[in-house]
Prior knowledge:
alpha/beta, 2 domains, 7-stranded parallel β-sheet, 6-stranded mixed β-sheet, 13 helices, 15 strands, globular
Amino acid sequence: MNTLVTGIAELVTNDPSLGVVHDAALVVDDGSVAWVGSAGDAPPADRRTDLGGRTVVPGFVDSHAHLVFAGDRSAEFEARMSGARYDGGGIGTTVAATRAATDDELRGRLRALVAEMRAQGTTTVEVKSGYGLTVDDEARCLRLAAELTPETTFLGAHVVPAEYAGRADEYVALVTGPMLAACAPHARWVDVFCEPASAHAFDGDQARAVLAAGRDAGLGLRVHANQLSAGPGVQLAVELGAASADHCTHLTAADVDALAAGTTVATLLPGVEFSTRSPYPDARRLLEAGVTVALATDCNPGSCFTSSMAFCIALAVREMRMTPAEALWSATAGGAAALRRTDVGHLGVGARADLAVVDAPSFRHLAYRPGVPIVHALELAGRH
């Protein structure tokens, strides 16, 4: 049975560009978009859902999140608000709590966060490991993540765990050897926190080794790059053909040129800057250079504990000089590009029928009404 969704004041399809249709309707058939157009031209359907003059946008595609964890780091957030600097060191606190948690405890929090995201319009989410940092714990985090999303990322190279302090190269050997072998069957991607400015993360050579090993194991590449300082991460991502370079807070002219010339998406995470009092990335500079930009939450217990893509859109508009249209595109089609997906992030015919409903007459309200819960994923009868 198919469903006609009508009563749409404004429909954003991202097909092509923003693709706004006013007084619109669409037909969903077997979980896919079967027809899009003016409500007056809508074909008959088995079922009908009337949205009463609301806006429909593609479901948000959150291409960077850390959702498998235990513990709480609110005290660390409070300290940062008082002037403490973020350098990644608090990750060890979450590692200890995650290792001590049961599978059911981790699964429960993961499911709750994914449900929280869906209630705010996110229909596709990438989930990383990175809070286990042993062979068994990283593998179990990925197995749990794979229960809820196909977009799973092996991040054994998140930081060097305490038991390997002063022996980073030895830990890299573990990550690229036994840990990768155990985790690759449960992952689509490999990632690394390439940040020479942090005493806890990995330099360019170590990051290259992790990415090369992941690629050889059949995984796609992602990179935490240039978050705390200018460094080798962005250009390494472009050189190796990574799908995404994430953070991109501190970029040189050469970094921007490399991104503009390559296929790597620059994924910006403005919630992190909000939560760490760090400088925001210069999205305007990237867009004007022709770089593909995505927005994601980086939902995690330390540097950014928000699950709201709408909040990140508002930050991108207010703090990163993006227009509301650019920010929405980056949170949907941009995220899809960062995951190299063509079936999500737009509402063209044949796309997954992942619809987000905005309780407002225009998508602009996503930035115009920050912090207000006006968007949610649409649940359709018979949707698989």
